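Lecture notes, unit on binding sites. The following record was shown on slide 14. It pairs a sequence with S-adenosylmethionine.
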Amino acid sequence: MKSTIDWVRWFHETPGLMAPEDALFLHGLALIAISGHPGRGAAELGTLHGKSAIAIGAACDICNVSLACVDSWSYEDAEEKIAVRNIAQAGLSHCVNIVTGHITTVGLNWKGGPLAFIFHDGCHQKPSIINDTDSWWGWIEPGGIMAFHDVWKAETNEGVIDRMAHYEAEYLGRVGVTAAYRKVK
Ligand SMILES: C[S@@+](CC[C@H](N)C(=O)[O-])C[C@H]1O[C@@H](n2cnc3c(N)ncnc32)[C@H](O)[C@@H]1O
């Protein structure tokens, strides 16, 4: 098994806004979700330069599954290249798939099959949270986990609570500004 020290080192060396406690939470959530659904992978909705992808990708690596990193990288082509480089430096290219596109659209057209874990860190406005969650929720296995970043923002939290109540998801907890929910049915 790969040493977890590898990803911690590369996580620290990769610029970004993800706090270490949130990253550890995501890593643990991904391990728990994937362990309960062997062979099912994960998706990250909003990757930017790949900092949080390193935490989740390392869990996927341990479990021998893939992480799909979905982002439009719309500002500049260079942003996507930075993500690809950072993920490669962390030694995770073999288990991370880069998917360029709009989060909602990719979810609606997803061909990757059911997932154990999804992390949302895309647009944090309420309509986007709702549309993104609705397009991806059906891909989570019952018992799988969806986590959301930046829930300290009232608008983000409203969207998350709205959708998780709609889907009767079980609240698992919050670490830093990341909240996690389990799909019950
Ligand atoms: C906060 S950054 C992600 C940071 C990353 N998760 C981390 O912690 O290292 C948000 C990213 O979401 C992407 N994004 C926002 N809305 C999107 C959408 N509707 N479709 C695709 N990508 C989107 C942006 O391009 C940006 O790279």
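Take-home: The pocket of S-adenosylmethionine is lined by residues 16-18, 46-49, 51-52, 71-74, 102-103, 121-123, 128 (CB under 6 Å).
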